[in-house]
Amino acid sequence: MKARFQQIQASPGFYGLLIGLAAVILIGLGAAYYMEHNGHWVTGMTNQVVWGTPHVFAIFLIVAASGALNVASIGSVFGKTPYKPLARLSAVLAVALLIGGLAVLVLDLGRPDRLIVAMTTYNFKSIFAWNIFLYTGFMVIVLVYLWMLMERKMYPRFGKPAGFVAFVWRLILTTGTGSIFGFLVARQMYDAAIMAPLFIAMSFAFGLAIYLLVLMASYRWTGRELGDYIVYRLKNLLGVFVAGVFYFVAAQHLTNLYATEHHGVEAFVLLNGGIYTFLFWFVQILLGTAAPLAILFSSLGRSRTWIGIASALVILGGLAQVYVLVIGGQAYPLSMFPGYEVSSSFYDGVVASYSPSLPEVLLGLGGTAMAFALVVVAVKALHLLPESLSDKAVNPHAAS
Amino acid sequence: MKRLSDLLRSLPALLALAVFAAPAAAGDGDSGLRPDIPEPLRGDSCVEETEDMRRNHMDYLKGHRDQVMHQGIRTKKYSLKECLGCHVPTEDEARRAGRSEGEHFCQNCHEYAGVELDCFQCHNTRPQEPRLPHPLTPRNRQTMQDAGNPATAELLNKLADSDKNETGVAQ
Amino acid sequence: MSDDKQPDLARREFLQGSAGAAAGLAVAPGVMLYGPAASAKPIDEAASSEVRWGMLIDANKCASDCDACVRACNTEHGLGDEDQSGPRQQTQYIRKVELRNKATGASHSLPMMCQHCETPPCADVCPTGASFKRADGIVLVDRHICIGCRYCMMACPYKARSFVHESLEDQEPYTPRGKGCVESCTLCVHRIDLGGIPACAEACGAEGNGAILFGDLNDPNSAIAQAVAEQATTEVRADLGLNVGVRYQGI
């Protein structure tokens, strides 16, 4: 590995970015304080829709975090040489996104002051309890992996084993995240074994989309060279991952459509669920799947701008997908009395209404900003980014 | 320059002096810094010695609460409701006040000690009315003994958590 | 505070408290120490799995326009005092559900509350173990260790749980509840431990409908055990295999 890594230089733009992100973080923290101090009545979350916009952001970030590590894994575990210089940024991005997601999750708890209780008292039948270990373990393992990547003496012997452990761990972690929903027998939209593999596929796509955007942005803004060789390989990979997500989504819905029992919830998502149907067809499928595939695999895919747009669309589609899953899944009523019309003072039998409130959105954005701020600080403080990712630097033996 | 740096170096010591001198300077008998703990309403002693209670009340309360929650053992000796029954007055709203006010029996001392008090997010700061006598305060112990009914006595011993026959009335 | 007066006062208080107790000592208005239920355990003994508390609800006897159980529960636990929360955020331990069969047109009314499952999904998913099942079958939330993550609310097949969305004050002495924790029907565990029956069952009986029968499912001599042994009863969402403690008739 002969790439030379270098810290980025500070500049007015750098400080401007950092200050902007810090402002969003502070606003997010303020929103969290407002929610905790007053209680959740200030949010749009209710007894019917108990997880709202903060959880959409948090789950998206956590899923993307494990996917962001993919690029490093392709280099270390699968031995693809062109990817190896990209590994350090990949590892840091993974940890940063996870921290951002967890921050949002923890700050939305009803009793965030009891975080110590959550970290010392465990019910090991709960996938949430396992996730606490998986998430903190992931951070430790990836930081160790990063150390192996950066330490010249360690890399030859430990780079691949560390990468392998990190790769396996993140697969277990994403399975755990998907199982949060997959294990819920109560709800029509969950309770499916496909949740875990679906989340794995989603993590591949979302993580790579964010990685691509961060990579292209950091090289453009620091004036370093980023060759087409790497970018084209990554964009093709993104296209494959997006197709993979679509496969699992299609399998999930087609299977559900076969069973009469699930026709209600399928109609809700696909036909008459209002905002959820719109988000599914227009944002998740059209903007988040079809459009990126069309862009990435056509001649538009040669343009950096269009690749960036495609990545952004994948992210947008991903947010919509998580929104439909988390919030739509709660909005659809429980099937307690099949064959009956149900009504009660506790909103049984009707689709629950929910609209995102400002504190929730600000908290979600604050966590996202925290993730990116960590990356910005890291690329300045550490030797993470190769000096050059031009085609010659990355792949000296390629025919031009 | 030299004088300024000398001054800055001695700043921590000056501050410490100010902080520690404040109580002495606060005046004779002024308990400006110490908690103002109200007298208990009933009984002349608590269920444990005062020093023991000061140090260990949290352990007693936590042990009791876990017993109540998970096993349904509802004895009275370390019950929070019973604490409030003796230590929170009927009149004097300030002493009965909610969790953020400093004059409540528990809040008072906790504020002084700087220890977060979590109980009253959920528990009422006031005892239920009418208050019933606590078996273990000596005056009431005497009453129970005078009453002398063995069934009541057994009951009261259970209430008092006692294989120790602390009410002193069991035969 | 002269010592002369105090013993008399104490004796009077004591005797006032125990007046009206048939078999024992009153510890709070309406709550008897050793009350009518002969199977009440002594208060210094732990709850045991030899007992399984349950309810049998007869939807045929449940009147559509009656909500005595809901009102009694709200009064017992001090619910409904959340004045900043919206209607969708207010706590309900028990609610009346109106059913209409889409195919046949038949209508029913019944109360729905925590079903106190034998294998509660809420207890399975709680990360800290705050949601748990007591030995005698009552499913509770230990609000001392609840972190307010609401995962149990996602997991409950009966949507039985509520979250406290605002700061509360002046709680009922036997139902401490506060901002940020999850809560649900406790089967009036504070009454049961002291020999009583749940407020909803008591109110339904007082109202004259008698749709809610409470008792020990493990005791072959109890009214409820005999009723479920002789008559057909169902669980709501029986396909989940949770073996709930609240069984229904008439649906």
Any descriptors?
heterotrimer, B: 171 residues, mainly alpha, C: 251 residues, alpha+beta, Alpha-Beta Plaits, globular, disordered N terminus
Structural class of chain A: mainly alpha
Structural class of chain B: mainly alpha
CATH class of the domain at 5-241 and 361-394 in chain A: Mainly Alpha
How do the helices and strands follow one another from N- to C-terminus of chain B? HHHHHHH
Strand count, sense and closure of the main sheet of chain A? Answer: 2 strands, antiparallel
Into which percentage range does the β-strand content of chain B fall? under 5%
User: Numbering strands along the chain, what is their spatial order in the largest sheet of chain A?
Assistant: 1-4
Provide mean pLDDT of chain A, rounded: 94
**Number of DSSP-assigned strands of chain B:** 0
Folded structure, characterized:
The complex is a heterotrimer of chains A (400), B (171) and C (251). By secondary structure, chain A is mainly alpha-helical. Chain A has a domain at 5-241 and 361-394: Up-down Bundle (Formate dehydrogenase/DMSO reductase fold), CATH 1.20.1630. Chain A has helices at 12-38, 53-68, 70-76, 87-107, 115-120, 127-150, 155-182, 195-221, 228-258, 263-272, 275-296, 304-331, 358-381, 391-394; strands at residues 5-6, 225-226, 340-344, 385-386, 388-389. Chain A has a two-stranded antiparallel sheet. Chain A has a two-stranded parallel ribbon with strand order 2-5. Chain A is globular. The mean pLDDT of chain A is 94. By secondary structure, chain B is mostly helical. Chain B has helices spanning 2-9, 11-25, 50-71, 80-87, 105-113, 138-147, 150-159. Residues 26-30 and 162-171 of chain B have low confidence and may be disordered. Chain C has a single domain (48-249), classed as Alpha-Beta Plaits, CATH 3.30.70. Chain C has seven helices and eleven strands. Chain C has helices at 5-18, 68-77, 121-125, 151-155, 189-192, 199-207, 223-230, and strands spanning 26-28, 31-32, 53-58, 95-101, 107-112, 131-133, 139-141, 162-163, 182-183, 212-216, 246-249. In chain C, helix 2 (68-77) crosses helix 6 (199-207). The longest helix of chain C is centred in the first third of the chain and has 14 residues, at 5-18. The N and C termini of chain C lie far apart (63 Å). Chains in contact: A-C, B-C. At the A-C interface, helix 5, helix 6 and strand 3 of A face strand 4, helix 3, helix 4 and strand 8 of C. Strand 3 of chain A pairs antiparallel with strand 4 of chain C, so a sheet runs across the interface.
